[in-house]
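User: Hey, quick favor. My workstation is busy. Could you predict this chain's structure for me?
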Amino acid sequence: MSKQFEPTIIAFTCTWCGYPSANLAGVNKMEYPPNIRIVRVMCSGSVEPAVIIDAFENGADGVIIIGCLMDNCHYVSGNKRAQERVDALKKLFDVVGINSKRLRTEWINASERSKFATTVREFVNEVRELGPLPLPKARTAKKGRTREQTVAAVKQLIEDTGAFDCVECGKCTTVCPVAKFDPNFAPRTIVLRSMEGIVDNIAKDRDVWTCTTCEQCNAMCPYKVDYSGFIRGMREEAVELGADLLCSQGGLIHAAQRIMAKSDLKQRRLQWVKDDMKVADKGEVFYFVGCLPHYDAIFYERQGLRLQDICESAVRIMNKAGVVPVVSNEEKCCGHDLNWVGDEDNFEKLMEHNVEVIKKSGAKKVVFTCPECYRTFKMDYQDLMGELKFELVHISDYVKGLVDSGALKLDAAAKAGFTFSYHDSCRLGRHSGVYDSPRALAKAISGAKFVEMENTRDKALCCGVSAWSNCNANSKRMQIERIMEAKKVGADRLLMFCPKCQIHMKCAVQDKIPVDPSAVDVKLEDFTVALARLMDLMPEESEASK
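Assistant: No problem, here it is.
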């Protein structure tokens, strides 16, 4: 006879109602399953989404948050915030493939001991029926390298990236967006410390994580030192030594990406596909969506942030040109972020999976809306796997090709009537060299005026964050400065292809800002979505979501 599965349940209980009800249930000897592990917190609203997903990643089969009754929170509205977070996290779980029934909230009075016991019994039984969550445990710090091995690895990294060629001219520092706001930061000093053999503190070196890897230093360096490649390698070494990553969003996004890499959960990535859209399972053109289906759930608090509109817009533009693209529920994150925070093992798992999915589709061409996905396939995948058997094309190059061939017309954009500028994202511009097609499309929009900002192409300002590795006050200053630059040239819209640039810039101006609001009164919009709207393929964004 097979042994019954007994789930591991984590219960986050608030100190005012959830925990006292659990305590009373115990004092009164009320039975409930021993599967539960109670974690006492000050308020249910203090339980961050990253903590919840961390519990699942470390072996929990279910998580329940038990707090004060609604409208009776001891911290005014903490339980309402907790419910909003859980609702958003359930949407993310649906996309990733974790059954949302594994996450629950319950609002309770401190004296309701019987309700606590009943709730726990019900939840344990429900999770027991779902079965174990098929997730390997989270990666733990390896800490297996000797000092000699680390020194040898860093020495090889210095050689591979040309760091020995640094002559300390300081040009990298003059263009570094981080150094502009942090006088103690300089790209070359990280290299110099390593060249001098100072490797003992790699795991604690904040500068390794502060760098945005925007490659402004690479573009300026007269000796072609690959600073961004050096930083990526140093992060991998730091992780090997047990570094505590400095991640924005509490590491939530990295955790979701690790889950995709390590599991075969049944995803639900295609909920954005509408009935009137034409997509296929097999075909010559594959549209790689990337992590866009996750972001609207993760950033639910960001007003007007509808990133799945990018997916829909891309497909509708292709359909308009007579192209029926392949979109796959089996596709996963490209691994860009994990690659740039030193998690090579999970990055390579995602790489191998995605290449196999595309091969099975029969595609000869892969189109990307996300610059990071495009760069990752074009450079990192091919560095590790050799030349891929399918063509890699960014949506800007692809749409320009459709326009040039006559398959697509932008004439419907005559209603435009606005002035706009274009933001070169680091991954699409300096990393991948895509500068001309976005501008060709911008100039093809009739009825609108395209203006260039002061810093463009390889001199474009960074949005301040990369791979969710760090986000601080200086990042916000970079974002605000970039938006102000667009306003200074008379733009009332700033178009961009990178969804993360849009996320970061909208975040920067969402709350209180250190400048006159009129200086950043610019509508931030995805370029693909803007094109689709101008061709009447997508509805206009309301002013409320600006």
